[in-house]
Amino acid sequence: MASLMLSGTGKLTVLNNRTPNGLGFTTSDFHGKSLSFPKSSINATSRVSYSRTSLVPKCSSSSVSSSSRPSSQPRFIQHKKEAYWFYRFLSIVYDHVVNPGHWTEDMRDEALEPAELTDRNMLVVDVGGGTGFTTLGIVKHVDAKNVTILDQSPHQLAKAKEKEPLKDCKIIEGDAEDLPFKTDYADRYVSAGSIEYWPDPQRGIKEAYRVLKLGGKACLIGPVHPTFWLSRFFADVWMLFPTEEEYIEWFTKAGFKNVQLKRIGPKWYRGVRRHGLIMGCSVTGVKPASGDSPLQLGPKEEDVEKPVDPFVFLPRFILGVLAAAWFTLVPIYMWLKDQIVPKGQPI
Ligand SMILES: C[S@@+](CC[C@H](N)C(=O)[O-])C[C@H]1O[C@@H](n2cnc3c(N)ncnc32)[C@H](O)[C@@H]1O
């Protein structure tokens, strides 16, 4: 699957342009056209104009956290405790139900390509590694003993521990926003499908920067904000679906250089990106100097260990789970369309 590569921070409005088919995306875009944008480390907010200004929370140059959720975007599962319980149940069926419909092996391998896992001796951390599906892609290129899987869900990690190719990996519980690795530790930071649950994604990306060695590379894979109104509604109720511009901005603010974004998605979507979840992206950046990120943030706001008010937690959890159900129907609907609509035509 060929992908669109974007370099730097500028002029990403082109991605929001409407196409003749109204999808905000053309099939030819998805299948190989390559666009380049000027590289720059200046604040992306001043360079990027969003077409969904009123709906998308922005990291302004003065903000120190990206954790705010406007009332139009309650994101009920973008909280650590809710995500913990979500995966308490989802872990039971995750490998059988979630990945085949949302995150396929060929997508994974395409998405990991920009990580440049070129040496078996590289030290790699897989953050939000869950049941180890993405780690299985990593250990094709890197010795398992050099790979650490970190996740806040012991239930997801229990599934990873059962996998034979991962038996030599280090498997630890931890928080993506507060990694238990020393500064300048790893050659590669990988995180797939986890940022959408982080209450403060900018903090997680700042941590990615900190734990990498000089010249190390972060590869963060995640969904994109849907443009189809119903998918956008359910996405905003469920969790964080960042825009492509936000990914670039978070990486740039954390201090990464050579920030690039590669679009990914399953073949049966034929390039349609309006539903957001699995039509996502793989964002990479290189650490240009050793030490911590130049970005200063205030204290962490949420901890999975913190007790919650059950009267607030429960309704939030139930509404979030209901919204998530929409995204089990979308891939089936798109698959059926792919079967019915003649090949070569837009769906
Ligand atoms: C969709 S799963 C992705 C799992 C795996 N990376 C894969 O590719 O299949 C998201 C994972 O992120 C984990 N997660 C969510 N918030 C986290 C946090 N703050 N710190 C660490 N892991 C987190 C969840 O527990 C879950 O296992």
TrEMBL record:
Residues 169-182 are annotated as: SAM motif II. Gene3D superfamilies: Vaccinia Virus protein VP39 (3.40.50.150). Residues 75-284 form the MPBQ/MBSQ family SAM-binding methyltransferase profile domain. The chain crosses the membrane at residues 317-336. InterPro entries: Methyltransf_11 (IPR013216), MPBQ/MSBQ_MT (IPR044649), SAM-dependent_MTases_sf (IPR029063), SAM_MPBQ_MSBQ_MT (IPR031164). Residues 124-133 are annotated as: SAM motif I. Residues 210-223 are annotated as: SAM motif III. It comes from the Eukaryota. SUPFAM superfamilies: S-adenosyl-L-methionine-dependent methyltransferases. One of its GO terms (biological process) is methylation. Keywords: Membrane, Methyltransferase, S-adenosyl-L-methionine, Transferase, Transmembrane, Transmembrane helix. The keyword Protein transport does not apply. One of its GO terms (molecular function) is 2-methyl-6-phytyl-1,4-benzoquinone methyltransferase activity. The keyword Glycosyltransferase does not apply. PANTHER family: 2-METHYL-6-PHYTYL-1,4-HYDROQUINONE METHYLTRANSFERASE, CHLOROPLASTIC. Belongs to the class I-like SAM-binding methyltransferase superfamily. MPBQ/MBSQ MT family. This is MPBQ/MBSQ family SAM-binding methyltransferase profile domain-containing protein. It comes from Pisum sativum (Garden pea).
